[in-house]
Amino acid sequence: MSILTRLVSGIWREHRASAGAQAAAAACAEAVGLLNQGQTAPAQAAFERALRHDPRSHAALGGLGVLFHRLGIRARALEHLLRSLAIEPRSREIALLASRLLHDAGRSGDAIRLLDPVAAALPEDPAVGYQLAWLQRETGDLDGARRRLEGLGGRAGDHPGIVEELAVALRDCGEIDEALACYARLAELLPDQPRVASALLFHELYREHDRAALVARHQSWGERFAPPRVARDEHANVPDPQRVLRLGYLSADLGLTSAAPFIEPLLAHRDRSRFSVTCYHASGRDDEVTHRLRSLADAWRDVDALDDEALCERVREDGIDILVDLNGHSRGGRLTAFARRPAPVQATYLGYGATTGVAAIDYRLTDGSIDPEGEAERWYTEKLIRLPGAMWCFAPPREAPAVVAGPAAARAVLSFGSFNNFSKVGTGVLEAWAEIGAAVVDARFVLVGVPHGDTRRRVGEIFARRGVSAERLQFYGRVDPREYYALYGEVDVALDAFPYNGGTTTCDALWMGVPVLTFAGRGTLARSGLSLLTAAGMTEWVTFSKEAYVSKACALARDRASLGAMRAGMRGRVAASRLCNSERFMGGFEMALRGMWREWCEKQAGDRPA
Fold first, then answer.
1. Rounded to whole angstroms, what are the CA distances from 443 to 412, 474, 477, 543, 568?
2. 357 near 248, Cβ under 8 Å?
3. Are 542 and 520 a contacting pair, CB within 8 Å?
4. Nearest Cα residue to 419 out of 352, 331, 512
5. In three state form, how does the secondary structure of 121-165 look?
6. What is the per-residue DSSP string for 282-342?
7. Which residues, 6+ apart, have CB-to-CB distance to 595 below 8 Å?
8. Angle CA 268–273–276, to nearest 5
């Protein structure tokens, strides 16, 4: 039963005596029929006629809200939905729709207040509970979200939305083992959903894992959801190794995301005489970064609403020679489309820290720090192409303020800090930091992105077991860009997470004059800190064991004078390094692409009959 049908049936069930109310109900029923037939204008007229009969008809007001929402007139839709709820505040369907529109308008607090009475009236309704928990998590109330979801789980444990939202909440609290248990349960509930199976693979990368077993699971994903039999190997592309190449970048991160500073150089600094670029934007995101990236591309396709078949047809129509995946199994990835091989050459780059397992993806662009030659090939189904120097090129943030003196120099108080997504900060990382705190008894810790409530108490307990008092811990939740950059002024040394190293936050820290101490492990993501610091020319900040990581931090604390001198010159050092040398990077990157293309051309020549 549709939202509109429920509204109208509710009116009839009330058996209101008023003739006006009965006439309004009849007009609403007529409007619903018209709207279901796609007759928008007559439906609007019928709803408005219902309001003339009964100005307090919440069905007519709600119906107009739904109608305007379908037309994309969001402000008018929200106005009418809220007027309907003022009359019937517990109207479930109207409240669910209105709360989503309020969230999209940046009014999540209002959305929560609107849903509260509905949740109180329907405490076991999974859709209402899910949406309210999602809004609570969005506003930073992870404790409230978890309590609500765990309560619902006892009554609606098989509701996929609730299980997935609980997984996200647990991940954001840094409880990755518990989150993975939820993702595994979600995969059981939705066994035929490739994105769910991808989420399980992706989140395994947050913790230490059996690399061989995980490669096998990626291959199994590929065999099941992206089998070679669906590929179309015939392509009309002219196999000329020297001609201008048509590149396609397919990504859900073409906006204000952590990947954008590494994507921008691909567009802004390419050789336009040899490469034409089309971006396939696989997200509904549309922000100032999206607009900037769009202006840098030769062509732009919004493909979020397209299924795999339509997306692949678009790529073929565009004549793309090399299609590059920038997501892998991360959120928004379209690996099932790559399985159809819409382009003759396909590669993966940047967005995922493991193999894709997709047979139709030919190459993976990487570097020798992350994937040492002769050692790493066994961990990938793709052929590895190692870029010279490093696989990264970073576009420095335009909004970053000038570097300021750190607390060790300004206030004689050494501060370690973490700016990583807190989902990367597992118990092992916290224990290492607590060990540093126990050895450097006057140091403090600035921890950004830590959820309020139970998570901060858990972190505090881990430090306290090592004798580090709560007064030495300074917590921050989510911060806006201005506060984010300002907080680097409160930190002398940034501590990288492991085994999932930072990426953009590492580069931001270096740009703000803050050195980053990293622990290089075995996996792809566990070596991204090594790769970034190698590109920046700062390998002295790389350690290769947890013990060395702790020891190096303690040694830095004993040599505080050098931190100030290093900080003053670090931005210039980074700007002059390979990490920010876009022309040098793109020379190597485009040479790699040209080599891929040449291999395909040679194969076509070899396949021709004599």
1. 10, 11, 21, 21, 21
2. no
3. yes
4. 512
5. HCCCCHHHHHHHHHHHHHCCCHHHHHHHHHHHHHHHCCCHHHHHH
6. -SS--SHHHHHHHHHSSEEEE-TT--HHHHHHHHHHTT-SEEEES-TTSTT--HHHHTT--
7. 385
8. 60
pLDDT score recorded for residue 9:
58
Q: Which of 383, 343, 384 is nearest to 367 (CA)?
A: 384
CB 325 within 8 A of CB 345: no
Q: Which residues pair with 385 in a beta bridge?
A: 365
CB 605 within 8 A of CB 354: no
The answer to whether 476 and 449 are in contact (CB under 8 A) is yes
Query: Which H or E run includes 97?
Result: helix 92-104
Structure tokens at 60: 């007519």
Q: Give me 453's structure tokens.
A: 């409530």
| Length of the chain, in residues | 610
- 507: tokens are 């580069």
User: pLDDT of 106-134, one tens digit each?
Assistant: 899 999 999 999 999 998 888 999 999 99
All structural domains of the chain: 3-122 (1.25.40.10), 192-393+582-610 (3.40.50.11380), 407-580 (3.40.50.2000)
Report the alpha-carbon distance of residue 329 to residue 318 in Å, rounded: 25
Residues in Cβ contact with 195 at an 8 Å cutoff, skipping those fewer than 6 apart: 333
Q: Quick check: 380 and 222 in contact, CB under 8 A?
A: no
Helix (H, G, I), strand (E, B) or coil at 169: helix
Is the pTM for the entire model greater than 0.85?
A: yes
389-446 tens-digit pLDDT: 899 999 999 999 999 999 988 778 899 999 999 999 999 999 999 999 999 999 999 9
591 within 8 A of 533, measured Cβ to Cβ: no
Instruction: Tell me the C-alpha to C-alpha distance, in Å, between residue 342 and each of 233, 345, 593.
Output: 8, 9, 17
262 touches 393 (CB < 8 A): yes
Amino acid at 159: H
Q: How far apart are CA 240 and CA 392, in angstroms?
A: 29
List of long-range contacts for 604-608, beta carbons under 8 Å, 24+ apart: 604/239, 605/239
| Cis amide bond preceding 499, omega within 30 | yes
SS3 358: coil
Closest to 339 in 3D by CA, of 479, 256, 431, 230: 230
- The residues pairing with 322 across neighbouring beta strands, listed in sequence order, are 247, 345
**Burial grade of 363 (CB within 10 A; 0-12, 13-18, 19 or more):** buried
Q: In what order do the strands lie in the sheet with 245-251?
A: 299-302, 275-281, 245-251, 322-325, 345-348, 363-366, 383-386
Report the alpha-carbon distance of residue 205 to residue 518 in Å, rounded: 17
Cα–Cα dist 285/304, whole Å: 9
Q: In one letter, which amino acid is 252?
A: A
77 SS3 class:
helix
pLDDT of residue 220: 98
State how far the Cα of 188 lies from the Cα of 190, in Å rounded to an integer: 6
Q: What angle do CA 463, 468, 472 make, to 5 degrees?
A: 105
